[in-house]
Structures are given as structure tokens and as C-alpha cells.
Amino acid sequence: MNQTTARENKPAHIFELYQTMCLIRAFEEKAEIAFDDGFINGSIHQYIGQEAVGTGVCQNLRASDYILSNHRGHGHSIAKGANPEAMMKELMGRVGGTSGAKGGSMHIADFSVGMLGANGVLADGLTMGVGAAQAITLKGEDNIVAVFVGDGTTNRGPFYEALNWAMVYELPILFVCENNTYASSTLTRSVTAGEGPVARAKAFGMPASDVDGNDIVAVDELAADLIARVRSGGGPHFLHARTYRVKGHISRDKLLYRRDGETSENWENEPLGRCAGWLAENGFDESELRTAHSAAYARIDAAVESAKAAPFPDAALAYVDVQDFGPPEPWTKEGGAS
Ligand SMILES: Cc1ncc(C[n+]2csc(CCOP(=O)(O)OP(=O)(O)O)c2C)c(N)n1
Ligand SMILES: [Mg+2]
Fold first, then answer.
1. Nearest-angstrom CA–CA distance, 172 and 137
2. How far apart are CA 128 and CA 120, in angstroms?
3. Is the overall model pTM greater than 0.85, yes or no?
4. Does residue 294's CB lie within 6 angstroms of at least one atom of ligand 1?
């Protein structure tokens, strides 16, 4: 993205963000089909409904900035510039996958674009993000780190360690809390004491902002400001984005814990439709939006076909690029390992 040109022409800039959001939406929808058809093992956590948060934040970062993601990381990765074709191969465990087909959906990483990793252990991205921010400071660079964290994860201990450390060392880090209302099948507010994530960040003396996370224009404007502020030595910032997890927690979730009509009511507010509405009011005609939408789906369709056609890695490569210390030493009562 050419940010300078984009800033001079706001509708063109928002249109670019719309294209990225379409790519994420298409990726998630096609991944679900591939999962249902048996091409993906394990589970996938879809980002549908939350596209504006990852897109608005990541597309305001430089290629040399870093992000840390969580278990719901497809959208963050695409928004930071990871290659969707290689990501689809990773999901299917094929040669050419972003993590050499050893990670799958929850361990996508692409260091070439500053995407330091998705993560299946809730809150681990936070502490790793703080480590990356500390490394930046020690090296005297002007990059920054953005870390994505779910609302439910703000109830885990490492969340507090990470915020505390970041504040003590005034690190260049933006914490992005995506409040999608749920933690698995639990309404997060029903298991969260006090006033929630913003109040908790402020308790550490950390400046915190709140945004409608389904409004790409609002997320983009605020993220641009906050990122500039963090980069210029302003220390950590906490961004709380209100959004909604349209799909189930994982691919097989039947949403039996939701009240009738809840999902469809929230669908009215989904970010792509809202962005398309904004673009229509700002000079784009429907055919341009439809073309962008179709182009994203065509690209992901091709990615799916190319992943299906790619071979599985040779079994001999199973121990390459992974830690292998050999079999454990036998344990003895006297002194641990013999
Ligand atoms: C340490 C740890 N505890 C529990 C889990 C199981 N788990 C995976 S996702 C999830 C809910 C996370 O909710 P939230 O942080 O709001 O993120 P969201 O799924 O809504 O994006 C749970 C409990 C885990 N992966 N890691
Ligand atoms: Mg959540």
C-alpha cells in the first residue's frame, strides 16, 4: 500500500483497506469449506466480523514493524502482508506452507513481513511481543510492535505481566484488545470483574482508547495516530476495539449458547458491509466494489486449488526446523536424570 498517496485520497485509501478485508473474508469462508471437506486437520478459528480491526491496525504499520497474533490469526497475518497462498498451504499441511507445513492454522508465522507468529496458548503472544519490543529498544530501532489479544485473554495472568513490563520499560508496543464479546462459549463480561479491559490497562498507568471495531474508517484513523505516538517514544498504548465474533469459536461450533436472532442482528453491523456503504457514499460505484469483492474470492479459490494440488512434505523432513533433543534420559529417584 502506498500510504502517502492513500492519505491524500481518503476514499482510495479506504478502498485499499476494503480489498484487504475482502481477502480475509474470502480466506476464512473458503478455509471453512476446505475444513468441512476434510482438507484441513485440527480446527480453525475464523476472523469473520473482525476484519476491520486487524486491517486498520496492520495496514498502518511498516513492513519492518512486528505483530504477534493469537489463535485467531489468519486475518492479522493477511493484513500484515503474509501470502494467502502460502497460508492456505500451511492450513492443509502442504509443501510451500508459511511454517513449512509444521504449524497449521494456529502457528502461522512469516518473519519476512514482521508477522512473528500466531499462538495457541492464550496470552503468550503478549509476553513475546513485549520481548520483541524490548529488543527493538535495545537495538535503538524505530520499529514498533502490535500485539492482538482477545477479551477473554485479559483474564489471564500473563496479560498483567506484559502490561506491567511494557510500562516499566516504556516499550514501543501497541496492545490491541479485540473484544468480540465471547471467550469460546462464554460471554466474557459474565466472567470479568470490574469495568473491563480499558480500566485494567489504565490501572497500569497505560493510556487507553476505545473504538468501534467494525468501523474501518474509525479504526484506521485512530490506529494511525496511536502508532505514530508509540513510534515517536510515547510508550505503550492500549486500544480496545468493540466487535463481534460472527462465527463459532472454532469451525465445528454450532452456537447453541446464543439466543435466537443474536447472530443475524450482529451481522447487520459487519465491517465489510459498513465499509462498502461508506465507499458508496464517497464516490465508488457498486460495480467497482463488486469487482474488488470477486477478485478477492477468485484469488482465494485459486489458492485453495493450488494448495490441494501441492504435495505433502517428505516424511524425512519431519525433524528439520524443530527442536529435537533425542529421547529423554531415564529418571532416577536419587538425582533426577541419570
Ligand atoms: C492458556 C490457555 N487456556 C485456555 C485455552 C483454550 N482457549 C482457546 S481460545 C479460548 C477463548 C479465548 O477467548 P478470547 O481471548 O476472547 O479470544 P477469541 O477466541 O474470542 O478471539 C480458550 C479458553 C488456551 N488455548 N490457552
Ligand atoms: Mg473474545
1. 8
2. 13
3. yes
4. no
- List the beta strands (DSSP E) in 112-169: 145-150
150 pocket-lining for ligand 1 (C-beta < 6 Å): yes
Contact 38, 101 (CB under 8 A): no
162 CA → ligand 1 middle, Å: 17
Which amino acid, 294?
Answer: S
Instruction: Give the nearest ligand 1 atom to 154 CA.
Output: 15
Say if residues 108 and 82 touch (Cβ distance below 8 Å).
yes
Which letter, b or e, does each residue of 279-296 get, where b requires 16 or more Cβ atoms within 10 Å of its Cβ?
beeeebeeeebeebbeeb
CA 130 to chain CA centroid, Å, is 17
CA distance 153 to 79: 22
Residue 325 CB partners (closer than 8 Å, separation 6+): none
Q: Ligand 1: distance of its center to the CA of 29 in Å?
A: 21
Domains within the chain, CATH numbers bracketed? 3-337 (3.40.50.970)
What is the pLDDT tens value at each position of the chain, 338 positions in all?
A: 445 555 679 999 999 999 999 999 999 999 999 999 999 999 999 999 999 999 999 999 999 999 999 999 999 999 999 999 999 999 999 999 999 999 999 999 999 999 999 999 999 999 999 999 999 999 999 999 999 999 999 999 999 999 999 999 999 999 999 999 999 999 999 999 999 999 999 999 999 999 999 999 999 999 999 999 999 999 999 999 999 999 999 988 999 999 999 999 999 999 999 999 999 999 999 999 999 999 999 999 999 999 999 999 998 888 888 877 777 777 776 655 54
Closest atom, ligand 1, to C-alpha of 121: 26
Element (H, E) at 237: strand 237-242
- Rounded alpha-carbon distances, angstroms, from residue 252 to 120, 144, 184, 325: 17, 36, 12, 36
Dist. CA 149–CA 68, nearest whole Å: 9
CB contact at 8 A, 183 and 152 = yes
